[in-house]
């Protein structure tokens, strides 16, 4: 997991997420098959997938249902919503808004 500094390749995507009202916006890179156990945030988050993929599960709602998001997809997670995520085999580069 790495936070990338702003560069021209990600500036447009970061501006897109910022236009949704997020003040803290950055590009994040997960290594292949990175896994984050179920957790939640006290604030809403937005994840715009630039490369690779991310799979998410909402264990409090449908513990056995996983949804995969690929390049160009955006995932919005409400504040307080428990979620578990996995990066794809190719990893996942995304713009995150908080």
UniProtKB/TrEMBL annotation:
Gene3D superfamilies xrefs: Jelly Rolls
InterPro entries reported in the protein's UniProt record: RmlC-like_jellyroll (IPR014710), RmlC_Cupin_sf (IPR011051)
Highest taxon in the source lineage: Eukaryota
Protein name (record): Uncharacterized protein
Organism whose genome encodes this protein: Meripilus lineatus
Organism lineage string: Eukaryota, Fungi, Dikarya, Basidiomycota, Agaricomycotina
